[in-house]
Design brief:
Layout lengths: L4 H12 L6 H17 L1 H12 L3 H27 L2 E2 L10 E8 L2 E5 L7 H12 L3 E5 L5 H9 L10 E3 L4 H7 L6 E5 L2 H14 L3 E4 L5 E4 L5 H13 L11 E4 L1 H19 L15 H10 L4 E4 L3 E2 L4 E2 L2 E4 L16 E6 L3 H9 L6 E5 L3 H10 L4 E4 L20 E2 L5 H6 L1 E8 L5 H4 L8 H12 L7
Parallel strand pairs: 3-4, 3-6, 4-5, 6-7, 8-9, 8-15, 9-14, 13-14, 15-16
Antiparallel strand pairs: 1-2, 2-18, 7-17, 10-13, 11-12
Length: 466
C-alpha cells in the first residue's frame, strides 16, 4: 500500500481548486509560518541542541533569525513579486499586450538535510508558499528532534489541505520520488542528488539541487596570518564544520603554512578555550555513523592541531591536518566536520590549476592583502559563491542567491530568488480580436512588399508599456 497516495491526492485537488493562487491566501500561509517560528522558538532551540549541540544563540544566529527575516521579506514584497512583468515588443505587436506572468508550479516537494534542519527546510518553504504552491516537506530523519517539531507542530500553523510533512529514511524518500511532482527542491550530497535527478527524469520533473563538494580556500603569501586564521577558523568550525559552504581545505605555500598553523592554534584557543570540548559554542557530530567516518579521516596526513575525539559525546576537536596527499580520503570527500587539511602549492597559478582540475565547488575563498590576487582567483575559477578575505557571511543576505554550479548543484534560492525558483515564468501575448486589416500583412502570399514590411517591423523596437 502506498503511504503517500492519499496525502498527495489531497494536495493536488487543493491546488486544482485554485485555493493557493490568491495573494491573500499566500500571505496567510506566510504569516502562519512566521507565528510558528515565534511561538516555538524555545522548542526549536531545544531540538537543535538535541540534534547538533547548538547553543540557543547559535540556533538563533544560523537558523531562526534568518528564517524570520525571509518570511518578513516575502510578506513585504509579495504583491510586487506577483505582478505581471511587462516586456519590450516590436512594431508588429504595438497594439498587443506582452508580459510575463509568475504562476505556481503546482505540487512541489522540498527534501531538506540535517545540518541546518530548520533553516534549510523553511527557507525554500517560504519561496514555495509565496509562489502559491502546495507543498510536501520531507525533513531529514537524521536530525530527529527537529524532524519531530516540523512534523508535529508546523502543520498546525498552515492550511493542511495545501501542506504536508512526510517522514522516513532513504527507502521512503525513494518511494516518495516515484510520484510525479511539479517541482523538486533537494538539498544534500552530490551522490544523492544524482539519485534525485534520475528519479525526476522519469517524469521530466524540474529540479533545484543544492549540493556540496570540496570548497577550496587559497591563502596568499601576502597576508596577515592571524587575520586569516581568525576568519577561516570561525567558518570552518562553525556548527562543528557541518556546513556545506565551509572552507574544506587550504591551499598555501609551505612558508605560509608554518605561520598559519601557529595562528590557527591561537584562534582556536581564543574561540573555544584550552579545552574546546567544554565550550558552549562548539557543536557535536550529528550521529555515530558520521562520527566514525570523521574519526577515520583523522588518520590522513599529520595532525598539527587537535585530533582528539570522544565517542560517547560525538566530540571531535577542531583539527588541522598537514602533510596531506590529494589522494587521501580527506581530500577526496566532503569532510562535513571540524577537520581542516592544508595542502601546499608554490604559486597562485598552481592553486588555480589545482582548483580548476576538480569539480566546481559550492563555495570558494581567497585571502590576500592584494586585491589583484583575490580578483585573479575570482576571474579564473568557477564556483557557486565566492568570498574574498571572508567566509560565508553572504548567506545572511536575502539579496544574494544561494546555489551551486556543475557538481555542486543547479538552481538558486534566497529572497526573491526563491519566489522565482518556485514560479513558472509564463510568456503571455494578448491581442485584439478585431483590427483584422492590420494583421493582413502577416498572411500569405508573401509579396516583396510584405516581406520588406514584416522584416522591418520585426527588427524594430516599440514601447514596453503599450
Amino acid at each position: 500500500m502506498d503511504p503517500f497516495e492519499d496525502t498527495l491526492q489531497r494536495l493536488r485537488e487543493a491546488f486544482s481548486s485554485g485555493r493557493t493562487r490568491p495573494a491573500e491566501f499566500r500571505a496567510a500561509q506566510l504569516r502562519g509560518l512566521g507565528r510558528f517560528l515565534q511561538d516555538n522558538k524555545q522548542l526549536l532551540q531545544e531540538a537543535l541542541a538535541q540534534d547538533l549541540h547548538k547553543s540557543a544563540f547559535s540556533s538563533d544566529l544560523s537558523e531562526l533569525i534568518l528564517c524570520q527575516k525571509e518570511v518578513a521579506l516575502a510578506l513585504q514584497n509579495l504583491h510586487t513579486w506577483m505582478e505581471d512583468q511587462l516586456v519590450a515588443k516590436n512594431l508588429l505587436m504595438t497594439l498587443s499586450s506582452t508580459f510575463i506572468r509568475k504562476e505556481p508550479f503546482g505540487l512541489v516537494v522540498i527534501i531538506s538535510p540535517w545540518n541546518y534542519p530548520v533553516y534549510l527546510s523553511l527557507l525554500p518553504l517560504v519561496g514555495a508558499l509565496a509562489a502559491g504552491n502546495c507543498v510536501v516537506l520531507k525533513p531529514s530523519e537524521i536530525s530527529r528532534g527537529t524532524e519531530r517539531v516540523l512534523a508535529e507542530v508546523l502543520p498546525q500553523y498552515l492550511d493542511q489541505s495545501c501542506f504536508a510533512v512526510v517522514l522516513g529514511g532513504p527507502e521512503e524518500t525513494g518511494q516518495l520520488l516515484e510520484h510525479k511532482f511539479d517541482y523538486i527542491f533537494f538539498t544534500g550530497s552530490p551522490r544523492v542528488g544524482k539519485i534525485v535527478m534520475a528519479a525526476a527524469a522519469k517524469h521530466l520533473m524540474p529540479v533545484t539541487l543544492e549540493l556540496g563538494g570540496k570548497n577550496p580556500c587559497y591563502v596568499d603569501d601576502n597576508c596577515d596570518p592571524q587575520i586569516v586564521a581568525n576568519r577561516v577558523a570561525l567558518f570552518r568550525y562553525f556548527n562543528a564544520g557541518q556546513t556545506c559552504v565551509a572552507p574544506n581545505y587550504i591551499l598555501c605555500s609551505p612558508e605560509v603554512q608554518e605561520r598559519l598553523v601557529s595562528a590557527l592554534q591561537s584562534a582556536i584557543t581564543c574561540f573555544y578555550g584550552e579545552d574546546p570540548r567544554s565550550s558552549p559554542d562548539l557543536g557535536r557530530i550529528i550521529n555515530e555513523k558520521h562520527f566514525q567516518r570523521l574519526r577515520g579521516l583523522l588518520g590522513c596526513g599529520r595532525v598539527a592541531i587537535g585530533g582528539q575525539s570522544e565517542e560517547s559525546d560525538r566530540y571531535i576537536a577542531p583539527t588541522v591536518l598537514v602533510d596531506v596527499q590529494e589522494t587521501e580520503p580527506v581530500m577526496q570527500e566532503e569532510i562535513f566536520g571540524p577537520i581542516l587539511p592544508i595542502m601546499n602549492v608554490r604559486s597562485l597559478d598552481e592553486a588555480i590549476d589545482f582548483i580548476n582540475h576538480r569539480e566546481k565547488p559550492l563555495a570558494l575563498y581567497a585571502f590576500s592583502n592584494s586585491s589583484q590576487v583575490v580578483n585573479q582567483m575570482l576571474e579564473s575559477t568557477s564556483s557557486g559563491s565566492f568570498g574574498g578575505n571572508d567566509g560565508f557571511k553572504y548567506l545572511s543576505l536575502s539579496s544574494m542567491p544561494m546555489g551551486g554550479v556543475g557538481n555542486s548543484g543547479m538552481g538558486r534560492y534566497h529572497g526573491k530568488f526563491s519566489f522565482d525558483t518556485f514560479s513558472h515564468q509564463r510568456a503571455c501575448l494578448l491581442s485584439c480580436s478585431g483590427l483584422e486589416k492590420l494583421n493582413e500583412i502577416q498572411y500569405p502570399p508573401y509579396t516583396a512588399w510584405k516581406k520588406k514590411l514584416i522584416s522591418w517591423t520585426l527588427a524594430s523596437q516599440s514601447c514596453t508599456l503599450l
